[in-house]
Amino acid sequence: MRSELERALDEIRPHVQADGGDIELVGFNDGIVQVRLQGACTSCPGVDMTLSMTVEPMLKERVPGIRGVVAV
Fold it and tell me: Which region, left, alpha or beta, applies to residue 36 given φ > 0 means left and ψ of -120 to 50 means alpha?
């Protein structure tokens, strides 16, 4: 599962990096993906929207069993 998540994040990462941030996989537990946002994403007021509107749908589309994404 971890390698599937890493591959999916590799596809998402350029979108996040385009705004000066980055995203790192921290863990996966019971359908919830834990990510650490870095760079400009750590202080961005739109980080919740980025997770819910971009990262989560893309991960759900690419990796079966994803129920949600949270920043840690």
Answer: beta
Number of domains in the chain: 1
The range of the structural domain enclosing residue 27 comes to 2-71
- Shortest CA distance to 69 belongs to which of 40, 41, 53, 2? 53
SS3 of 48, please? helix
CA 47-18-21 angle, to 5 degrees, is 45
CA distances from 68 to 25, 42, 71 (A): 13, 19, 10
Question: In CATH, what number is assigned to the domain containing residue 26?
Answer: 3.30.300.130
Which single residue is written with the structure tokens 């980080």? 47
Q: What is the pLDDT of residues 26-56, one digit of tens each?
A: 999 999 999 998 987 777 787 888 888 888 9
